[in-house]
Amino acid sequence: MNKKLSITAIIFLLCCASLAAQTAQNAFAFPYAFSAQDIYGRTVTQAELGEKEIFFVHYFATWCPPCVREMPDLARIAERYGNRVGFIALLDDFNNRAAAVRLAQNAGINFIIVDASHRDFRTLRRMVQSGYVPTTILIGRDGRMIGEQIIGALGMGYASHIDKALGGR
User: Mind listing the pLDDT tens digit for each residue in 118-151?
Assistant: First the structure.
């Protein structure tokens, strides 16, 4: 009985190691370099996003009621996918950082929120600014948008876009 249990445990560990290696192969660093201040006043860089399979870039504002309402859902999504997806938010009204801090803390947001107008985010701004908030994009290994812009607040509905972008990986 112990021998069967040991063999089963070894097979399980080998499967887990294989899955971890496959996930590591799919991971890449955020393709846009930046060094910017987050809403807490800390300097953050792309390195803090780590290596992920895709990146979720969310453009929002604290004055936008749908943006505010969906923040707890974004926190849950980031928690669910955080080992495979890198999350960063570009704040439209960075001059209102105090409101952004309250919003992030109340919603349980633990991903980076930075000033959308910062010079290092020019390329991302062109990709994500649709004229509407919120707007979200998913970024792939080549630095391009995966699919189309996601315009409007989707709450937990972002999960289906993430699942599709991950493509079962």
Answer: 999 999 999 998 889 999 999 999 999 999 999 9
Give the span between the Cα atoms of 111 and 90, in whole angstroms. Answer: 11
Distance CA 109, CA 74 (A): 7
Do the bridges between strand 54-60 and strand 35-37 make them parallel or antiparallel, or are there none, so unpaired? unpaired
**159 band by pLDDT with thresholds 50, 70 and 90:** very high
Q: What pTM was estimated for this model as a whole?
A: 0.84
∠ CA 131-136-138 to the nearest 5 degrees?
135
State the average pLDDT for the chain: 89
Give exposure, 37-66, as e/b (b: 16+ Cβ within 10 Å): ebbeeeebebeebeebbbbbbbbbbbebee
Cα angle value 74/66/87 (rounded, 5°): 25
- Single-letter amino acid code for the residue at 15: C
Alpha-carbon 113 to chain mean position: 10
* Through-space distance between the first and last CA atoms of the chain, rounded to whole angstroms: 35
Strands 112-115 and 135-139: unpaired
